């Protein structure tokens, strides 16, 4: 879904420009991080107690979209920033960064959460699924297909979060009626106002009996 | 966000020790309020003590008392059969709060520990006695549409935003606490504080004290209950006014009643006098109106929130009517 804007003929080449800017930002922030990080060794704890000091990074092992990662992060790095900045998984969006918009929604051990309001170090040992992990190769997830078919987005910025939330909403059993869908999707804001079409997409997947 | 050290203690005692030793340390559970406050620079702890690995995640029934471990998620509590059958008011209140994503992160203890707050508390460029004691209250002479109508002081008029806590106040829950001096039990109504001259203190927990869980006693309030939340949009917004109503009705007579309100005070606002006014009465709109008038007698309003008094009265009547199905 993150490539959907490319299919819009009105903005050819947009993705390339964005990627160039993104790579520049990544390079410069990596250099900056290198310059600022003191060469301290992380001590992973005695008696099962894990500790990271004020300027220390600490090891984090987690699985993202089926792939195991062993990473080193500052305690203050959110899961959202880890996904976007360290793993290059920029499908998960930073909207408000305060848990108010839902653009950063990912699944942790199968449950949807706001990745902006949790620390990466708190996710030790967890299994994370992002929008990049939904499709099976070139076959889109039924909810991704439905969002395209029912025109469940305009600008697309909230869409990865909407789709991750929608998949969880159906799996939880909270997609029984348009009213229930609206209530249980209320943590995902769409400022283009594609709500009617989002509800239609979720309803179609639910009624279609697809395995999500 | 400020830099901080991070510790993940392996035992409850180690967690309490870590907080007792370090003045600026904070526990972190779901993090949904704490990290938000840290991103805004409202608080800047130097150490976070991650309690998520402690064995405080459970929902059990012991001698008819429902015990909910402090780390049980809001979504887990809302959906649990023991809660939906024995204390459906709590389930309704939880589902009225936040979004499903946040309920999948927020814990029972963390919900109680979320700050009583207003937009001036969050705006670090403005005076706020809660954030910086003695600096003044920007809300009293400012935009105070969302603010308290009960129990406020000339220091602070912010409201507690929880829905879960309103139901727990109505259900006479008990807060279980462990700390450097041992364990203690706090009646729910005595857990949170009114602002008085110390609006920086939201509750009566001491340094190093950790909420381990809550107990909810058996109650007759399984049928005639309703949680009403009135807000600016249909879902995912703080309450302007919320009402937890529970009635025990037999032979068309109210045997006992529980009423608490949210969005109106610095702490969950229990309405004891209005409850008394309902006992022995028939469940009618007229009697609910009388109780609602009793409930709002001590209301005091500010420039922009006078609407909350009739809204509170009407909300009480509506919630009681829904609870009694009249």
From TrEMBL, chain A:
Residue numbers spanned by region Disordered: 1-20
SUPFAM superfamilies membership: 2Fe-2S ferredoxin-like (SSF54292), CO dehydrogenase ISP C-domain like (SSF47741)
Keyword Cytoplasm: no
Keywords noted in UniProt: 2Fe-2S, Iron, Iron-sulfur, Metal-binding, Oxidoreductase
GO molecular function: 2 iron, 2 sulfur cluster binding; metal ion binding; oxidoreductase activity, acting on the aldehyde or oxo group of donors
Source superkingdom: Bacteria
UniProt cross-references to Gene3D superfamilies, sorted A to Z: 3.10.20.30, [2Fe-2S]-binding domain
One Pfam family here: Fer2
InterPro entries, alphabetized: 2Fe-2S-bd (IPR002888), 2Fe-2S-bd_dom_sf (IPR036884), 2Fe-2S_ferredoxin-like_sf (IPR036010), 2Fe-2S_ferredoxin-type (IPR001041), 2Fe2S_fd_BS (IPR006058), Aldehyde_Oxdr_Iron-Sulfur (IPR052914), Beta-grasp_dom_sf (IPR012675), TAT_signal (IPR006311)
Domain named 2Fe-2S ferredoxin-type: residues: 58-134
PANTHER family: OXIDOREDUCTASE WITH IRON-SULFUR SUBUNIT (PTHR45331:SF2), OXIDOREDUCTASE, IRON-SULPHUR BINDING SUBUNIT-RELATED-RELATED (PTHR45331)
Name listed for the protein in its UniProt record: Xanthine dehydrogenase YagT iron-sulfur-binding subunit
Native organism: Chitinophaga eiseniae
UniProtKB/TrEMBL annotation, chain B:
Keywords in alphabetical order: FAD, Flavoprotein
FAD-binding PCMH-type domain boundaries: 1-221
SMART domains according to UniProt: CO_deh_flav_C
Pfam families named among the record's database cross-references: CO_deh_flav_C (PF03450), FAD_binding_5 (PF00941)
Record-linked InterPro entries: CO_DH_flav_C, CO_DH_flav_C_dom_sf, Diverse_Substr_Oxidored, FAD-bd_PCMH, FAD-bd_PCMH-like_sf, FAD-bd_PCMH_sub1, FAD-bd_PCMH_sub2, Mopterin_DH_FAD-bd
An MF annotation (GO) of this entry: FAD binding
Domain of life: Bacteria
Protein name, as recorded: Xanthine dehydrogenase YagS FAD-binding subunit
Organism field: Chitinophaga eiseniae
